[in-house]
Specification:
37% of the residues lie in helices and 24% in strands. The protein is an alpha/beta fold and 306 residues long. The radius of gyration is 18 Å and the shape is globular.
C-alpha cells in the first residue's frame, strides 16, 4: 500500500476570471473545487491508476469534512486525524489575459500537541500495511520542522518518499529517506549551488542523501531519475499546458502506483511523465484523467544516460 501523509491538507479553489483587476471588483466566471495537498493529490492519481493507497494527515472543521467528502466521491481511501481548527482553503486565480496563475496559499490550522500525538498513534497503526510511506508538503503551524524526521524514525524498515521544501526537506534528508523528488530550485538549495547539469545533480543528490531514488523535476523539460542501477533522462510529452498545479504530485502518484504494480523503474517513470503532462493540460487544480494519461504514455520518452 502507498500511505500518503499530508499534514497540511487543503481545499483548493480555482477561480476563473477574464482578467484580475487589483483594488477593484472582479467577476468570477467559474469556480472549480478540489481536494488538495501534495500527498492527497498523489493518492488521487495512484488510486485512479489502480494503485492501493490510503491518504492520511490532518483534516478539521467543515472544510475538513468537505475534503473527506470529495475523496469519498472519487473512492479514494482516507483516514485523517481531526483538528480543532479548520482545514485551510487555497485559491488559484486563472485569467484569460495570458498572465500566469496567481496562487494564494493559507498557512493552515494550528495543530496542538495532543492532535500530533493522536496522529502519530494512528500513523503507527497504519504503518504495517504500507509498502511506501510518502511524506508530502508543508508543515502546518504548531508543529516543528523536525516532524518529518520523527515520522522517518517511526518508519524504519519502510520505503519512504519525501516531497517537501526548505528546512523541512533539508532536515528530512539527514534521516536518509528512500526517495526524494525536488524540483530544480529545491535541488539547488539542497546541494548549495546552481545546477548546470541536472543529470549530474541527480547523481550528486542521491549520494549526498544516501537515497535509493532521486527524481529532479524540470517542468516542461521533463525530469531526471537517478538510481543505483542507472540514471534516466525523461522527456515529457509535448502538450499545451493550462495549469501545472499538481503536476509533480501526479507524476509521483503514477510512478509509485506502477512501481507497486510490478513495472520496472524506467516504465514506471514513463507513466509518471505522462501523468504529470496530463495534469498540466487541465484547468485549475484538477488532475489529469486516466484516459489522457494512457494516451500520453507512448509520447513520453525515457532513455538511460548514466
Amino acid at each position: 500500500m502507498i500511505l500518503t501523509v499530508t499534514l497540511n491538507t487543503s481545499i483548493d479553489q480555482a477561480l476563473f476570471l477574464d482578467s484580475l483587476k487589483l483594488g477593484d471588483t472582479n467577476r468570477v466566471q467559474k469556480v472549480q473545487i478540489d481536494a488538495g495537498g501534495k500527498g492527497v493529490n498523489l493518492s488521487r492519481v495512484a488510486h485512479m491508476l489502480g494503485g492501493n493507497t490510503l491518504a492520511t494527515g490532518f483534516a478539521g472543521g467543515p472544510t475538513g469534512d468537505f475534503l473527506r467528502g470529495l475523496l469519498d466521491r472519487d473512492g479514494v481511501p482516507h483516514q485523517f486525524t481531526p483538528t480543532a481548527e479548520p482545514t485551510r482553503t487555497n485559491f488559484n486565480i486563472e485569467t484569460d489575459d495570458g498572465h500566469p496563475p496567481t496562487t494564494l496559499n493559507a498557512l493552515g490550522p494550528l495543530v496542538s500537541a495532543q492532535e500530533w500525538a493522536t496522529f502519530c498513534a494512528l500513523f503507527q497503526e497504519l504503518l504495517p500495511q504500507a509498502d511506501w510511506v510518502c511524506l508530502c508538503g508543508s508543515i502546518p503551524p504548531g508543529l516543528e520542522l523536525t516532524v518529518y524526521q520523527e515520522l522517518l524514525a517511526l518508519s524504519k524498515g519502510k520505503r519512504v518518499l519525501v516531497d517537501a521544501d526548505g528546512d523541512a526537506l533539508a532536515l528530512a534528508v539527514k534521516s536518509r529517506p528512500t526517495m526524494l523528488k525536488p524540483n530544480l530550485k529545491e535541488a539547488e538549495r539542497l546541494l548549495g549551488q546552481a545546477i548546470q547539469d541536472p543529470v549530474e545533480a541527480a547523481q550528486d543528490l542521491r549520494e549526498l542523501a544516501e537515497a535509493e531514488i532521486v527524481i529532479i523535476s524540470l517542468g516542461a523539460q521533463g525530469a531526471v531519475l537517478a538510481t543505483s542501477e542507472g540514471v534516466y533522462q525523461g522527456d515529457s510529452p509535448q502538450v499545451i499546458a493550462v495549469s501545472t498545479v499538481g503536476s509533480g504530485d501526479s507524476m509521483l502518484g503514477a510512478f509509485l502506483a506502477r512501481l507497486e504494480g510490478g513495472d520496472p523503474v524506467p516504465i514506471a517513470f514513463q507513466w509518471g511523465l505522462a501523468a504529470g503532462a496530463a495534469t498540466a493540460t487541465t484547468d485549475g487544480t484538477e488532475i489529469g484523467p486516466s484516459s489522457v494519461i494512457e494516451l500520453l504514455f507512448d509520447r513520453a520518452r525515457v532513455r538511460q544516460v548514466g
